[in-house]
TrEMBL record:
This is Glycosyltransferase. It comes from Faecalibacillus faecis. Residues 5-168 form the Glycosyltransferase 2-like domain. Belongs to the glycosyltransferase 2 family. GtrB subfamily. It is found in: Cell membrane. Pfam families: Glycos_transf_2. One of its GO terms (cellular component) is plasma membrane.
């Protein structure tokens, strides 16, 4: 019988896990045509998450887990899941039930019967989310799709079911700075999009502060576009052009109209403006440089402390 590996990244999810397992069991019982493996990735949780997973594993032999030596982030957890998955199909799902397991039969059908390579989900509403966060999220997708060749779907979740071939392609990308939303699109293949209404998490708290999301967005831009570097060059050239025109203007005014000095306010404005633009552009270059630095170190994406894989 074919098997689906369900990868569940968990960071401080002790409350949510029971609900998750209950709900997931129901779906697994429904889907009799395929076998399951639940691969929990404990991403350095500080609460009793690992104990809860072990308890589940002792009751259900389909439950497998990998426990990291510290918190490495969801991207690392997903990668560890892909590397250690053994199923013919691989599914990625959050532990907080914001990715409804009830969609799984429909996703499986899309791959099995309709011939897609992957079935992904996107939420069409952002109910229960602070409006300011939704606004910036929308902006991010708009800008990203303008400046990058890889298409990002607005509202796309990481929740998706993939064929083995799709996952193997993802594993080919061994980069350290992982931005999965982009990688999913980059590998290509045929993806079916399944839409659903946003669900709020069942228990616990979100791990994403506004600040973390902003840094994640910058990571995404740096990983999938070099447009900011080009923009920096263009801004530099424009400033140069303006400076030339201004210099000629001052020379002409001094020589012809005999009006050599006036106004330090304009001087201060120009110095601060150009200073600001310079630092901003150096910052952009720095973002790319720091990513190159991290990639060249070639550190592992995650470190496993314990697991029950074999
Ligand atoms: N997660 C993780 N490592 C982290 C942060 C989050 O494995 O450092 C997991 C978390 O346990 C959950 C999923 O990633 O299963 C999504 O996290 P969360 O619900 O906090 O994000 P949100 O749904 O609010 O975007
Ligand atoms: Mg969540």
């Amino acid at each position: 019988m074919e098997k689906i590996t369900v990868i569940v990244p968990c960071y401080n999810e002790q409350e949510a896990l029971h609900y998750y397992y209950e709900e997931m069991s129901r779906v697994m019982n429904e889907m009799k045509e395929v076998g399951f493996e639940l691969l929990f990735i404990n991403d350095g949780s500080k609460d009793k998450t690992l104990e809860v997973i072990k308890e589940l594993a002792s009751k259900d032999e389909r439950v497998k887990y990998i426990s990291f030596s510290r918190n490495f982030g969801k991207e690392s957890a997903m990668y560890a899941g892909f590397e250690n998955s053994t199923g013919d199909y691989v599914c990625l799902m959050d532990a907080d039930l914001q990715d409804p397991p009830r969609l799984l039969p429909e996703m499986f059908k899309a791959i099995k019967e309709e011939g897609y390579d992957s079935a992904a989900t996107r939420r069409v509403t952002r109910k229960g989310e602070p409006p300011i966060r939704s606004f910036f999220a929308r902006m991010f997708y708009k800008i990203m799709n303008k400046i990058s060749d890889t298409e990002l779907m607005d509202g796309a979740r990481d929740y998706r079911l993939m064929t083995r071939q799709f996952v193997n392609s993802l594993l080919e990308m061994k980069e350290y700075n992982r931005f999965s939303k982009g990688l999913f699109g980059w590998v290509g293949y045929q993806t079916k999009w399944i839409e659903f209404e946003n669900v709020e998490r069942v228990a616990g708290e979100t791990k994403w502060s506004f600040w973390k999301l902003l840094l994640y967005a910058i990571d995404g831009v740096v990983a999938f576009s070099t447009a900011p570097l080009a923009i920096a060059s263009v801004v530099g050239m424009l400033m140069l052009l303006v400076a030339f025109i201004f210099i000629i203007f001052i020379i002409v005014r001094t020589l012809i109209f005999n009006d050599p000095t006036s106004g330090w306010p304009s001087l201060v404005c120009i110095i601060t403006l150009i200073g600001g633009i310079q630092i901003f552009c150096v910052g952009i270059v720095g973002e790319y440089l720091s990513k190159i630095y991290l990639e060249t170190k070639n550190r592992p994406v995650y470190i496993v402390k314990e697991d029950n894989l074999k």
